[in-house]
Design goal:
Blueprint (H helix, E strand, L loop, with lengths): L1 E4 L2 E4 L3 H17 L10 E4 L1 E4 L2 E4 L2 E4 L1 H8 L7 H12 L8 H12 L1
Antiparallel strand pairs: 1-2, 1-3, 4-5, 5-6
Helix pairs in contact: 3-4
Length: about 110
Amino acid sequence: MTLWTLSNFVHTSNFEGALCNLREVFAAIRQARLQLNPKKCQLFRRETTFLGHVVSTGGVSTNPAKIAAVRDWPLPTNVSNLRSFLGLASYYCRYVQDFATIASPLHRFTA
């Protein structure tokens, strides 16, 4: 089970552990005199989108919507457009083997 709260998440392998962690999180929130918006809370999720990535019990993976944005990006026609594309593509460099080598020729155009 995974508990997502305050733009953070706590992972446990079972429901009882999740309840225990949830009690601790709520106690800390109460002690800090913070409030939660129930409409924005996601509890006991097996998967969520977090900082542009899909986080699940299986690990961290790419967000298909973000990959579509990279794939469908218009062909850069100037240095500014190329820098924008490289910034977007670089966000997912951890998922592309040899990304630096692949992107190197494009970076030369931005210098």
